[in-house]
């Protein structure tokens, strides 16, 4: 059983209630089509967006996290984000919240997500910003807990988008958290 399988029953109670307006802005919703919540866990965030997009698909590796997502009227799909079982250009919107630092191969994950993103679509990533001391401490704490997290700086994540995107930008949500937003050509 992996770490997230273990904490799945308590996950939604231990984490903050998401601010729906924040994700609406980040993803430029409403929009017709499909949203992929990559590393979406229990669908804590994306279930709040269901009325702003045609369909919500939640991808995750953890069976127990996804079991909870499946009860929230989203479509759960179990797979590595590095190897998604979707055709090219399937999704209008893709969201990653608090998950990129857990992905084993982050460059490959972003490459794969840009593959399944439609032209004209948006990939929005919310991540802790390693430039701040509190996040360095969080990275250390996760290491001590035996998690194989790899935190990055927002500019490093932006650089992983390559030339597939018409525009990328970084915004700061608060001191420790950044959004990296990429619009695909
Ligand atoms: C901190 S949780 C965040 C869940 C959700 N995005 C949220 O904000 O509530 C990170 C999630 O990433 C998933 N994950 C980690 N590595 C993954 C991978 N390589 N492919 C797919 N999911 C992965 C974990 O199983 C976990 O559910």
Question: Explain this structure to me?
Answer:
The chain has 185 residues and is α/β, with parallel strands linked by helices. It is 29% helix and 31% strand. The protein is built from seven helices and seven strands. It has helices at residues 3-7, 11-14, 20-27, 63-69, 106-116, 133-144, 154-159, and strands at residues 31-38, 53-60, 75-78, 91-97, 117-128, 165-174, 177-184. It has a seven-stranded mixed sheet with strand order 3-2-1-4-5-7-6. The radius of gyration is 15 Å and the shape is globular. The chain starts with a helix and ends with a strand. The structure holds S-adenosylmethionine.
Question: What structural keywords apply?
Answer:
185 residues, alpha/beta, Rossmann fold, 7 strands, 31% strand, globular, binds S-adenosylmethionine
């Amino acid at each position: 059983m992996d770490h997230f399988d273990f904490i799945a029953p308590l996950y939604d109670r231990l984490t903050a209630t998401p601010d729906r307006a924040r994700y609406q802005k980040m993803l430029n919703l409403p929009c017709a089509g499909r949203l992929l919540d990559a590393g979406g866990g229990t669908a804590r965030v994306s279930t709040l967006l269901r009325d702003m997009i045609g369909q919500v698909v939640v991808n995750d590796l953890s069976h127990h996290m996804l079991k909870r997502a499946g009860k929230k009227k989203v479509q759960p799909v179990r797979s590595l984000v590095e190897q998604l079982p979707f055709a090219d250009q399937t999704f209008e919107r893709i969201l990653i919240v608090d998950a990129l630092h857990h992905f084993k191969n982050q460059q490959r994950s972003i490459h794969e997500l840009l593959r399944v993103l439609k032209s004209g679509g948006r990939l929005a990533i919310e991540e802790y910003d390693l430039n701040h001391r509190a996040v360095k401490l969080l990275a250390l704490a996760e290491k001590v807990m035996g998690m194989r997290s790899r935190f990055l700086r927002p500019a490093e994540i932006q650089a992983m988008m390559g030339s597939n995107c018409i525009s990328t930008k970084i915004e700061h949500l608060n001191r420790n958290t950044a959004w990296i937003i990429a619009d695909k050509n």
